[in-house]
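As described in the Methods, two query proteins were run sequentially through the folding procedure within a single session, without resetting any intermediate state between them. The first query and its resulting C-alpha cells are shown here.
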Amino acid sequence: MALAELERDPAGGGRFSSPVPPSCRSRPCVLGVDEAGRGPVLGPMVYAICYCPKEQLQELEAMGVADSKTLSESERERRFGLLEAAGELLGWALQVLPPQHISACMQQRAKYNLNELSHDTATELIQHALDNGVQVAEVFVDTVGPAEKYEAKLRGRFPGLEVTVRPKADALFSIVSAASICAKVARDRAVKCWNFTEDLGDDIDRDYGSGYPNDPKTKEWLRRNLQPVFGFPGLVRFSWGTAQELLRHGGVPVTWYDPSAPTSVLSYFSRSSPRRSPHRFFQERSLKPVAEL
C-alpha cells in the first residue's frame, strides 16, 4: 500500500502515488485537487489529486465519496479503502509538505507565503499526472485565494486543459471529494504515526487534540512540550503565531553577538581613519604608489 511508506517516515514528506490505471492512459480523464492541513499548527499539509476517465465518474460517485470534513475518521478510512480497491478505475497522488518545510518557506528572506506554496504544489501534482501519461482533459480545484485569479493562473500554465476553480469544490465535484479523502486520510496517518526524534520522555505525549491553534488541547500540548532553549518538536509549525507567542513568553531570550559588527549605526558614517605613512623601506628609496605619480 502506497501510504505504508509515509507511515514509516511521516516527517520526511515527499510524493506518494498509486499506479496509473491503463484506462487513464487511453481515455480523457477528469482530475480533482484538494488539500488537508492548511490551518493546523501541528503536522504536515497534504495536497492530493485524484483522477479517473470521464465516462466512469458515475462509478466513482457510487462509492459515496464526499467532502472529507463531513465524514468521521472511520468513514474516511473506509472510503479511502474503496478508492484503493478501485485501482483499475482511478488513480491518485499526494504531496506531503512537512511542518518545518512550511515554516522555512514562510520565513525565508524572499517571502513565500502559504498561498504560493499551495498553488505551486497543486501545479506540480497536475504536471506529475501528465508526465505519467494520464490523459487529463478537465481539472477541478478547491480554491486557495481568489478563485478567478487562481483559475487564470492554472489555465495559463496548462493551456490545453479545461480548468475549473471553485470555493468548496470538495462538496461540488465528486473527483475533488475523492482527492479530499485521500489528502485527509494521509495527513491523519502522518500525524498519528509521527516519529519524534526529540527526547520527550519514556511515554511520548500524543494527546495533541485536533492540531488547530484554537483547540485548547493543542495549546496545552504546545505548552507541555516547549523546550525553553530549543523550542518545539519537529511536528510543530514554528512560524505559526500560536507557537511564536508561546516561545516569546516561555523561551529563553537569545542575543546573537557578532564581534565584527560596529557598536553603533553611526560608525558607518564616521570619517575614515588617518592614512598611515608608508614603510621606511619605501621612504628611503623615494618609492610611491603608481596612483600618486
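Immediately afterward, the second query was submitted; its sequence and C-alpha cells are:
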Amino acid sequence: MRFLLAALCLSLVPLAAAQADDPYTVTGVEIDATADNALQAQTAAMQQGQRAAARRLIERLTLAEDRVGTPLESAAFALDDAIIAEMISGLQIRDEQRSGTRYLAKLDVGFHRRSVARVLENYGIPFVDSPARATLVLPVLDAGGDLVLWRDNPWREAWQSRRFRHALTPMTLATADPEMAPITARQALQLDEAALSALAMQYGVTRIAILRAAQQPSEAVRAGGYMVEFAQDGTMAVDTWGPMSFYGGWAEAADFFVIEREDAWKRQGIVRDMEETEMRVTVLYSGIDEWRRLQTALARASLVRNAQLDALSRDGARMTVQYRGALDQLVSELAERGAALEEHPELGWVVLATR
C-alpha cells in the first residue's frame, strides 16, 4: 500500500527541468502492464518503471564489479520499492495508452542526489556523480563511399533519438542548416583543425567525437572514428576509436560508445580513499565572470568537501580547499569543469580557466 500511495502521488509531481548534464535524471523508461482493471494495470506499470529507472541510474553511477554480491547487482536487482519511492523526486509521464486492463507509457524519472548517495553508501558501493564535459558528436554516414553528415543520415537519427543528455559523459549533437553547414563530412574525417576548432568554439566544448559508420551486407553496423580534444593553448590532440561491428544496428552502436565513455569516466573518478586532504590554492582570473566560473567549478566538484575563501583581489583569490581521493582525480574533475589545477614554482597550486 505504501508503494501504491507513493506511485500515485509521484505521478502528480512534475519532473523539474533538469540540467543537460544532470546524471540523476533517467528518461524514456518504457512501461507496459496488464491487470484485472485499469487502476491495477497503471499501478503495476508505475512500479515496473520506477524499478527500471532506479536500476538504470545505479548502473550509470557505479561499476558492475562493485555491485557484485549486493542487492543492487544488475542481474538480481532487489531494492525495496519503498526505498525507491523515497529516492524519486518527480516523474513525467509521456505517450500514455490505456484500456480497461492495460497501461502503456514512457517515464522520465528524477532522483534526489542525497537519497541515492545514502542508499549506495549503506551498501558500501563507491560511485561517481560528477559528469564529464559534454562531447560534441559528428555522426558521419558512409553510404557506399558517399559521406553524409547533415541530412538523410540514419546514423545521425540514432543520436537524435537516443537520450544521452543525462549520461555521465553527456553528448551534444551538432546541428546546422545543411545549406550553411559549419563543417562538411569530409572536413571532419580529414581532421580539418581550423573547421573543428571553430565548431568547438561555437558549441563551447573542448571535445569532439567524429564517428563514421556504415551498414554492412550482414546488416551489422560498423563504426569507428576519432576523439578530438583541444587544450587550453588551442592545440589539438587526436585519439582513435574502433572500428567495430554492432549487430543491433545504429542505436546499439551509439549506446555502446556512450556506455564505454561512461565506464572510463567512472574508473577515473570513483573515490575509494575517503580520507580528506587540505590544500591552499591561488585562483587567477581576468574578470568577475571568470572568477565566478572558477569558484563554481571548485564548489560543485564532487571531490571537494569544502572550499573556503581566504582573500580576494581584482585578479586573484586565495582559497583553502578540502578534498577526497587522489590529487590526480581532483585535477581531472576540475578539468572537466573548465578549471586547470597546476603547480606554479612561485605561487604553489594555481587554478586557471581552461578554454
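Residues 1-12 have pLDDT under 50 and may be disordered. We note this only descriptively and draw no conclusion about the first query from it.
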